[in-house]
Write a structure and sequence with these properties.
GO terms for molecular function: DNA binding. The protein has twelve helices and five strands. The protein is an alpha+beta fold and 286 residues long. The protein folds into two domains: 3-87, 434 Repressor (Amino-terminal Domain); 104-280, 2-Layer Sandwich (Beta-Lactamase), CATH 3.30.450. The radius of gyration is 20 Å and the shape is globular.
């Protein structure tokens, strides 16, 4: 472990982050650039004291799990994340959906889209980042862990997830999710992360197993879907998906498909996030 280099790297990366990129309001009293240590600690789910000791070169070697959390909190690129692991004396974790971070360029686009809901997803449907408008519309999808990180897994294993779409659209969403997952399996042939997810879904859901056996393949590009929001009601939304050249990440942008949906999105922006029901955080999105 290279303590001094690790400490300097963490300090410089923390100071280089625009608070808005991390979803934190700058506020009138912020005197220094970047994030505060307590903000990094909150984003990474660790104590402020540990962040301080890391930045002062006084800590024990952080675990791989803590490094993943720090990389997410500091919005590190793939190269920066790999460097972080090496400084801490670890081999970089596999670049699957559990560890990859949303590309910095895509995260900046989330901010530029402003009041338009947008999310960054992995090719397996893990939400890596989302802007405030997306949180208002669909809830916070970045809080999940384990297989629940993946939208397709939640859709087929948690009935509460489906309440955000009208029943007549459920089969359509189910087929789209399965077809999109099969396309990822084809691109990542032999990847244990993907094959393991498929195996666990087949064990957990008869419905998934039946659809998987039909071998439908389709990469999601554009779609129109209805969201049943618990506070503003029914919204008809157009969904446009932009895929990175390596097909490992996607930018999903949702726009109102009619005047009624536009008015309800404006109302939702005013209402904010108070009392957002947890069961509503399950939109199939894709």
């Amino acid at each position: 472990m290279q303590r001094e280099q690790l400490a300097a790297f963490l300090r410089h990366r923390r100071e280089a982050i625009d608070p808005a990129e991390a979803g934190i309001a700058a506020g009138p009293r912020r005197r220094t650039a970047g994030l505060r240590r307590e903000e990094v600690a909150g984003l990474a789910g660790m104590s402020v004291d540990y962040v301080v000791r890391l930045e002062q070169g006084r800590s024990s070697r952080p675990s791989a799990g803590l490094l993943v959390a720090l990389a997410r909190a500091l919005r590190l690129s793939d190269d920066e994340r790999e460097h972080l692991f090496h400084l801490a004396g670890h081999q970089p974790a596999p670049g699957d959906g559990a560890a990859r971070q949303a590309r910095s360029g895509l995260v900046r686009m989330l901010g530029l889209l402003g009041s338009t809901p947008a999310l960054v997803l992995s090719d397996l449907g893990e939400v890596l980042a989302q802007n405030r408008a997306a949180v208002l519309l669909t809830g916070d999808h970045t809080r999940h862990s384990g297989d629940s990180r993946y939208l397709v897994y939640r859709w087929f294993t948690d009935p509460a997830v489906r309440v955000v779409h009208p029943p007549e659209e459920h089969e359509h969403h189910s087929r789209q999710l399965v077809a999109d997952l099969r396309a990822s399996v084809g691109r990542r042939s032999g990847d244990p992360v993907v094959t393991g997810l498929v195996d666990r879904l087949r064990d957990a859901s008869d419905h998934f197993r039946r659809l998987w056996a039909e071998h439908e393949v389709a990469v999601r590009r554009a779609d129109r879907k209805t969201l049943l929001h618990p506070r503003v009601g029914r919204l008809l939304m157009d969904c446009e998906t932009l895929v990175t050249p390596d097909r490992l990440q996607q930018l999903l942008v949702l726009t109102p498909a009619d005047a009624e949906a536009r008015e309800r999105m404006e109302l939702l922006s005013v209402l904010g996030t108070e009392t957002f029901p947890a069961q509503a955080e399950g939109s199939s999105l894709r």
